[in-house]
């Protein structure tokens, strides 16, 4: 009986992780397509004296990329900050405190 419960818990955790991973992949694909489209459109409308490598053209992909990096870290490195080991240690610490 306990083995079945453990399997369901692990399944739910894996299912949650897959949903986060899928969301990250979709967000990444949208990021690439939208930014490539915008940058290509901007490149075609450059004046001869304009420089493509200016802040105006690169701020959208830069800030959006930073915003995309946060979910990426939580998907690919979930134990880096406040991970499973930290949770278990905190639970033990609080249980000891309540004795």
Average of per-residue pLDDT values:
84
Distance between the termini: 29 Å
Number of helices: 3
In the predicted model, the low-confidence regions spanning at least 5 consecutive residues are: none
Percent of residues in beta strands? under 5%
Biggest sheet, open or closed, and with what strands and sense? none
| Morphology call | elongated
**Radius of gyration from CA coordinates:** 22 Å
Look at the helices and sheets and give the structural class.
mainly alpha
Q: Helix share of residues?
A: over 70%
> How many β-strand stretches?
0
Elements, N to C (H/E) = HHH
Would you kindly provide a written description of the structure presented here, covering whatever features stand out?
The structure is a single chain. The chain is mainly α and 99 residues long. The chain is 81% helix and 0% strand. It contains three helices and no strands. The chain has helices spanning 2-44, 55-76, 84-98. Helix 1 packs antiparallel against helix 2 (55-76). The model has no long low-confidence stretch (mean pLDDT 84).
